Amino acid sequence: MTGAAQTPKLMAVAMVLFALGLLAVIAIFAMFALGRHDLPLWLNLAAGVLIPAGMALGLFSAIRQARQRR
């Protein structure tokens, strides 16, 4: 990468996955606050999978980028 302002593509994907997971968590809390208790399975899976996947991919991308700079 030529500039420090550029975000590697892998990190951008990680941020999108993490953001989608956070949106799922916010939706779960909003639906629960509105009185819904039978939440869809896909929403629970999205919250439980996307956040850790985004964090793991972001960590992998950061470590990879740091090793490339050496």
Automatic annotation (TrEMBL):
Keywords: Membrane, Transmembrane, Transmembrane helix. It comes from the Bacteria. The keyword Transmembrane helix applies. The chain crosses the membrane at residues 12-35, 41-63. The keyword Transmembrane applies. This is Uncharacterized protein. It comes from Solihabitans fulvus.
